[in-house]
Write a structure and sequence with these properties.
This protein has about 160 residues and is an alpha/beta fold. It has five helices and six strands, in the order E-H-E-E-H-E-H-E-H-E-H. A hairpin with a 2-residue loop joins strand 2 and strand 3. It binds guanosine-5'-diphosphate and magnesium ion.
């Protein structure tokens, strides 16, 4: 069976953009509205010579809509439960938020191998937020720009030992 890479994190950090870049087709719905990817999406993906199944998730929000939040949580749990490795994405421009901490703690308790990605890292304004990622205690954050295709070689270096 192909290894599975689950892309997780709070809404609007760029998970679907990363998924689309890895899968190479516009399978995932990308939107400015937080949490718009309500269904889990997966597709055959590659990164240089790595082949795997990428799984996009909506992320769970501590939002007002209880049932939607519950569905997001369920699909994130399902994706991580079957994952070879999880990629936790945060927004380097926003820095680490309480919800990012929540995800990090939740994933750590699961014991799933983790790669931490600081997305939207293409500009100088991302520098501080990139460094904040160390606070999560999940190792060196990988600076990435899913939108501009930057940092993919570093992502490769981090993923390769797990796949
Ligand atoms: P998701 O909710 O985590 O799946 O996030 P999306 O992939 O839907 O992206 C949310 C927003 O962030 C969209 O407007 C994207 O165009 C934007 N975005 C995604 N990746 C990047 C990036 O690398 N840099 C910048 N500046 N914006 C990005
Ligand atoms: Mg999405």
């Amino acid at each position: 069976d192909a290894p599975r890479v689950a892309i997780v994190g709070r809404p609007n950090v760029g998970k679907s953009t990363l998924f689309n870049r890895l899968v190479g087709k516009r399978l995932a719905l990308v939107d400015d509205q937080p949490g718009v990817t309500r269904d889990r999406r997966e597709g055959r993906a590659s990164l240089f010579d790595l082949d795997f199944v990428a799984v996009d998730t909506a992320g769970f929000e501590d939002g007002s809509d209880e049932s939607l939040s519950g569905r997001m949580r369920a699909q994130t749990e399902a994706a991580v439960g079957r994952a070879t490795v999880a990629v936790l994405v945060y927004d380097a421009r926003a820095g680490i938020t309480p919800l990012d901490r929540h995800f990090a703690g939740w994933l750590r308790r699961r014991g799933v191998p983790l790669v931490l990605v600081a997305n939207k890292a293409e500009g100088l304004q991302a520098e501080a937020g990139l460094n904040e990622g160390h606070e999560l205690g999940l190792g060196e954050p990988i600076g990435l720009s899913a939108e501009h295709g930057l940092g993919l070689a570093d992502l490769y270096q981090a993923l390769a030992p797990h796949l």
